[in-house]
Amino acid sequence: MKDQPATVFIVADDEAVRGSLRLLMKALGLPAQAFASGQQFLTGFDPRRGGCLVLDIRMPGMSGLEL
Amino acid sequence: MFDPTAASDGSNASSSQELRALLDAAVDAVVVIDARGRVETFNRAAEQMFGFTASEVHGQNVCVLMPEPVRSAHDDYLRRYLATGQAKIIGIGREIQARRRDGSVFPASLAVGQVAGADPPRFVGFICDISARVAAERAAAQAQDRLTHVARLSTMGEMAAGIAHEINQPLAAITTYAQACQRLLDRDKPLDVAEIRESVVQISRQALRAGEVIRRLRTFVANREVRRQPLGCNRLLEDLVTLARADLRAHDVDLRLDVQPHLPDVMADAVQLQQVLINLLRNAVDSTLQHGVVPREIVLRAVSVPDGVEISVRDHGPGVAPEALSRLFTPFFTTKPQGTGLGLAISRTIVQAHGGRLAYREHPGGGACFHFTLPAMGMDEP
Prior knowledge:
heterodimer, A: alpha/beta, three-stranded parallel beta sheet, 2 helices, B: alpha+beta, Beta-Lactamase, Heat Shock Protein 90, 2 domains, five-stranded antiparallel beta sheet, five-stranded mixed beta sheet
């Protein structure tokens, strides 16, 4: 578990924004996982994986700041 | 019957003079013609209105007072009436174009009567110059158009935040894709061409997406002539949704579309109708936010009805307060702290000009519902 590299969690409702960030992380050699909403992230992410969050602030439902 | 222009004597003299005085005191132009259309009487108001003297037109065909194409057709009209007795203008009256001596044309209202008992028939026409009224009507229509445009600009100003976001999203995506490409190209690893290609495709697609938002924005704020033309309702609503969604998302309100496919075409000015719908949607958003309503959802519905297409906007708020109902569409009446009170008034005027009527009803399931019906193409306007 400890050996796992940090993951960049991307949460953005806009598909293009999400897709572009995922590719950028890949180009930088960072593992990334993308979610379409705050809710999806909360139910879908693996808490054992460390990493950082890249959030869209303005999203319908749960905003980035709320998350 | 008397001929007021003919010299009279004896007992007729005083009544003829009386008639002459009456004719010359009249505000309207009075023109009497014989069965062949030749002018017999031309009063003082007619002289002033047309710039001819009575002696100039006396005996001339009355069509000298008309512009083409009526000028050439008038003899036929007269013959047809005499042959069939079918009146197109006699006893009905209508608005016409009239022509002055100098060739200039002006709008006038014309009432024509047949002189009772005269054989061969004679006709009397009363002509009233309505240039001033027509000009006033045109000025009023122009003022209304300007007001409508200003209201649209102001609406767009309020929507700026949402629109900016809608343009920023594709721009952000473009920047990120471009940066990713740069990284991929700079790496020492072998290139994944498919990846680069996909990025370039996305960059182009996102640029078009941003451009499309701007195109709709420009169409919406442009100060252009009002043009009503055949319009597919579905297309109209699709165009609307791009702008409206941006605005609603900025307020975290969902837009639910309940639009029947293959709606009939309507005769409409697309921009003005979008303006009406955006007004209604923004009102619904304001009510939703103001009252903290759940669900945060607005329903835009368009269905085919017997007399055209019914379009409605519904929220889940408390509806319009009873005391506000009667003044809902009155200009400058507003229930919002920042409201101008013009949105619904202008919207109603626009819908009216499209042959419909904007009205309010409380939705059976709760919430305010504003609705109007547009006559489908090919149906008579009311």
